[in-house]
Amino acid sequence: RAPAPVLLVVDYLQWAAPVTRTVLARVLRQSEGTGRTDRVRSSGCLFAFTVRTEAADREVRETVRALRDRSGSLALELGPLSDDEVRELVALSAHLETFESDGALSRILTLAAGSPLYVIELLRTLAETGVLVTNADGQLQLAGPLPDPLPFPTGMRELLETRLRALPDAAVTIAAHLAGARGRAGVDELRDSTGLSAADFSRGLGTLIDRVILGRVGPADLAFAHEEVRRAVVRVYPLAADLEAETARRRRRERRFGWAAMGLAIVPIAVAVLDGELGQLQYFTLPAKNDRSES
User: Fold this and answer.
1) How far is 114 from 89, CA to CA, in rounded Å?
2) Torsion of CA 173, 179, 181, 183, to 10 degrees
3) DSSP alpha helices (H): ranges in 115-237?
4) d(CA 202, CA 164)
5) What is the pLDDT of residues 190-225, one digit of tens each?
6) Quick one: which of 229, 238, 146, 145 has its CA closest to 184?
7) Cα distance from N-terminal residue to C-terminal residue, the chain
């Protein structure tokens, strides 16, 4: 029976590490090969990449150009939302008439600049700060006349930071440890690392999930709703920045140890093979560096 087709999605390619892009390039080259290297193509694997080209560095832009030039590739350019599309997005969760009558919608249109993420995060921020309330129909509407100046953060960074600074202490601790773990961790692992009691951890986690700051991934993992949220946590809370730096140091140590261990393993194997070809398979013990042979 033919294998089931696979869709491999790489989201936000502009944040991928160089080694990740190298591995992806190798896999894609194999998908164009023949014979034994044709496994990827014959397995029915489709690749989908998303990238914010304005946020990508030179190397990422070169990767994107290489992907676009591949035979059979399809590139879709997604521009910002139009004003009508922003109105439609707001209307999905909010009572549009109240926004229009108070002049709030025109301010949203100006600040959003067609960014759907900004619109969604803005509505969440206004709801969490009491500017918006939920009416009987389950829609968001203004709680009263808009204050002057309007309480609208002017950019995505400020918007996310405003939401994060309103979190209770337990939620802050969880978010900081998850950000330090590079944005994804198991529930049990995260609870142990925070040192919170079971009750505090449950309340903090519930707050983060209810506010769509993080969510469940798979049966037992947690991850941020968006990479921008994780980055905002690192900016706002020094604990998250310290934990992220420690995670990076630990991973560098692990990589160095892995390469060193691989190097130690290669030498005995090579000696055994060479001696084996001569029919003289031997085993060696290596002296410590501070040993000195006596003449």
Assistant:
1) 11
2) 130
3) 116-128, 156-165, 169-180, 187-194, 198-210, 227-236
4) 18
5) 999 999 999 999 999 999 998 889 988 877 889 998
6) 229
7) 70
